[in-house]
Amino acid sequence: MIKHGKAEYNLRSDNGSYCAFSVYNDIDDETFFSVKNEERESFCTAGDCIHHPSFQKLFSSQVIGDASLFSIARVVLVFTDVDGSTALYEHSGNGAAFRAVKKHFEILFDAVLSSGRVVKTLGDYVMAAFSSGEAAIQAAGQALDGISEHCVMPNGKPLQIRVGMRAGEALMVPLNGINDYFGSTVNVAASVESKAQAIECLISQSVLSDPDAAVMYNKILENGYCHTLTVDLSMKGVPFTVKAQGFQSTKSSVTDNNKNIKVSLKEDTNTTR
Asked: What is the DSSP annotation of 19-52?
């Protein structure tokens, strides 16, 4: 029995053969988790590891076991979609439209993979995951800026996307060769994205409740983004409203009429979508 804290061992076999050394922990989970984070040595959670860029480079093809249901206590899920993609393909033709969409994928993936992981794509929409709201908000801002600046549709107008994010518990499940996510957080995050406006990142309060995420949100506003008013989102099948607020890029003509929206969060008023 040793007390909580760092322990060091020096082992030397003196019998000319092999020796075995084993360490086991027989305390219950309640006792273990009562140790405060600040009292522990630096540690990396499974969620932190899976979303780390190095893990994506080295082990992106690795999936958890088929019989596993891996629960992550808190993950930030981000959904994006191209605004007006149906009209884009209809009016521009498949080839020309996809060239613009492909360029948007390149910029978006670059932003996500700096601190998170791309879970999957379906058509023009992307599902991404981050271990922190701070990283998710920073990536969303980078993507909105880059896409507005560098992705041009065949008609000469900038390509626009919608972004939505939600934080919470989710199940990681091996499906179709990837580590996919399931659960209420996934469904609500997708619904938040569907409520966003063009070139808007809509962020639920579950993300902004993290102090580091709130700081990053304010940094985004200081760097020329427009703050969009707090909204109460009503969603089909969800027995509660989801409070969210967001920001829009100013690098597109869509926000010309919104450049004076940037206000203190304390002055904000709620609207409903």
From this structure: --------S-HHHHHTS-GGGSPP---HHHHHHS
Q: Please write the tens of the pLDDT for every residue from 202-237.
A: 999 999 999 999 999 999 999 889 998 888 888 888
What SS3 class is residue 102?
helix
Structural tokens at position 57: 């480079």
Beta-ladder partners of 158: 152
CA gap 91, 93 in Å, rounded: 6
Q: DSSP H helical segments within 114-260, as ranges?
A: 133-150, 184-195, 205-208, 211-222
Nearest to 104 by CA among 189, 165, 53, 161: 161
Using DSSP's 3-state secondary structure scheme, residue 163 falls into strand
Tell which residue, 40, 106, 111, 29, has the closest CA to residue 78. Answer: 111
Using a cut of 0.85, tell me whether the model's pTM lies above it. Answer: no
| Distance from the first to the final alpha carbon of the chain | 58
